[in-house]
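In the design runs reported in the main text, the only information available to the sequence generator was the tokenized backbone. The following block is the verbatim input for one such run; it is reproduced so that readers can re-run the procedure and compare outputs position by position.
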């Protein structure tokens, strides 16, 4: 039951076989789709394991590799993408009941499509969000394990409900889409992930609202003395990758996130390429890409323009390679803040190469809270162009969000920070306003550092 019957309703569909394991899992959906008259290629699939592939000319039921074509099918976003050697198994979310009219809640259809994609035995299974729809889903975790090679391909628009008022009360407000426990998964496409973040940015608790109210002299909308108002403040990260490895994210446009656009934690071997991330300059906490507890990360060829850190690198990040990235408007590329609440923090081997940072308050920043432990080392900034940036490079070991931070004696050790050529032979005179004062600087490593176990990482 189920899969074979469902195919009867698919419009202009040829059929690919995605291996076994789908049988009995996908739900039959009753809503006939436009067109009707799907076709079912016989043979194989003795357990009814067929699932749909998108439009190919109806006559094509050969064993040739399917080359997806317009008008309704998958169009590879990147013409350079080689045709898959094997026939890709494409599961269009519409085949699982998704409507894509911009208002219908398509969450259930996406869950069913994911379940089928994850159960597929094919070496290249594609969950397709087609280009002619705007799909709305609520907080969803797409979890594995699934067979490596799974592609979540967004050509249309994918978005959450609009703002906190429309968020289902039972849904997590800290994250929207989570990819978890996956190996060898790709998120890509020529489409847009639209965060609909504005109503989250305007929550009474957000500092952005205070700044704006002060600018417009509208004191009725803020707390006493320019403070923020109380109230729920949690806002979702748009796309979170958790406990996964061998991930690729490429080609998408991702915009207006309620909070971080991307967050990778507990991952390894991540490649981000060709993303366009965009949010307004005054959108609070909308970091472009946040990485923590993640190793071997490449972030290449991307443009990020937003209201907070362009890329932020948190504790437990090792071997992060950032190349050909353009950052605008926000707070630049940031390592930290590290060591908050006296925690141990370690970051090593971060390279930023061929980057452009413009119209930003900061360029490259390492910020550690005092009282923390651990170390930041092996940081290279090479060929970074800054235009209209207020603070180009900041190493701040006294990071503090308000003015009431206590003085503490431990700190995260920051070492081996270099440009292409490390700075040498710098002469400072007492007349220069330096922080800390020049008398605090010393040659070499302090004895206390050399064998302090608090500063050891791994
Ligand atoms: C506002 O600031 C004034 C002057 O600094 C202070 O006396 C007053 O207690 C503050 N009010 C609140 C509610 O914090
Ligand atoms: C960075 O850009 C240059 C010039 O477009 C290109 O040759 C190079 O391959 C890019 N680097 C990466 C890691 O993609
Ligand atoms: C940083 O990179 C160097 C050179 O590749 C390597 O020897 C070192 O182990 C790395 N450090 C960490 C903490 O990964
Ligand atoms: C911390 O130490 C600095 C420098 O000694 C001093 O100026 C500042 O007042 C101290 N702050 C607190 C909160 O004790
Ligand atoms: C350091 O800079 C001074 C002043 O520019 C120069 O005279 C001196 O040769 C430099 N020393 C080295 C080791 O480069």
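Verbatim output:
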């Amino acid at each position: 039951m189920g899969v074979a019957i469902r195919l009867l309703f698919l419009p202009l569909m040829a059929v690919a076989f995605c291996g076994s394991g789908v049988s009995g899992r996908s739900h039959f959906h009753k809503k006939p789709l436009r067109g009707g008259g799907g076709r079912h290629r016989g043979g194989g699939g003795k357990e009814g394991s067929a699932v749909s592939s998108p439009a190919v000319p109806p006559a094509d039921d050969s064993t040739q590799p399917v080359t997806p074509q317009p008008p309704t099918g998958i169009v590879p976003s990147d013409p350079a993408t080689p045709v898959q050697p094997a026939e890709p198994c494409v599961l269009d979310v519409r085949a699982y009941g998704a409507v894509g009219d911009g208002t219908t809640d398509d969450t259930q259809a996406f869950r069913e499509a994911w379940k089928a994609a994850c159960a597929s035995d094919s070496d290249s299974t594609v969950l397709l969000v087609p280009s002619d729809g705007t799909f709305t889903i609520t907080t969803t975790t797409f979890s594995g394990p699934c067979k490596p090679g799974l592609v979540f391909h967004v050509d249309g628009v994918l978005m959450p409900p609009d703002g906190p008022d429309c968020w289902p009360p039972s849904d997590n407000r800290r994250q929207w889409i989570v990819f978890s426990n996956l190996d060898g998964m790709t998120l890509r496409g020529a489409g847009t992930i639209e965060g609909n973040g504005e109503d989250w940015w305007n929550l009474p608790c957000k500092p952005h609202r205070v700044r704006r109210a002060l600018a417009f002299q509208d004191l009725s909308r803020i707390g006493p003395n320019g403070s923020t108002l109380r109230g729920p403040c949690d806002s979702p990260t748009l796309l979170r990758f958790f406990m996964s490895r061998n991930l690729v994210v490429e080609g998408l446009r991702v915009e207006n996130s309620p909070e971080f656009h991307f967050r990778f934690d507990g991952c390894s071997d991540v490649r981000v390429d060709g993303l366009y991330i965009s949010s307004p300059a005054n959108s609070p906490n909308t970091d472009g890409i946040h990485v923590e507890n993640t190793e071997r990360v490449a972030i290449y060829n991307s443009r990020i323009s937003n209201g907070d850190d362009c890329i932020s690198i948190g504790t437990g990040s090792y071997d992060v390679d950032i190349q050909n990235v353009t950052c605008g408007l926000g707070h630049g590329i940031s390592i930290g803040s590290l060591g908050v609440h006296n925690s141990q923090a370690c970051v090593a081997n971060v390279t930023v190469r061929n980057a452009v940072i413009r119209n930003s308050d900061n360029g490259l920043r390492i910020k550690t809270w005092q009282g923390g432990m651990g170390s930041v080392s092996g940081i290279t900034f090479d060929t970074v162009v800054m235009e209209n940036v207020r603070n180009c490079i900041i190493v701040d070991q006294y990071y503090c969000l308000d003015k009431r931070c206590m003085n503490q004696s431990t700190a995260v050790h920051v070492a081996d920070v270099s440009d292409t050529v490390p700075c040498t032979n710098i002469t400072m005179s007492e007349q220069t306003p330096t922080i800390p004062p020049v008398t605090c600087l010393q040659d070499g490593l302090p004895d206390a550092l050399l064998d302090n176990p608090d500063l050891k990482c791994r």
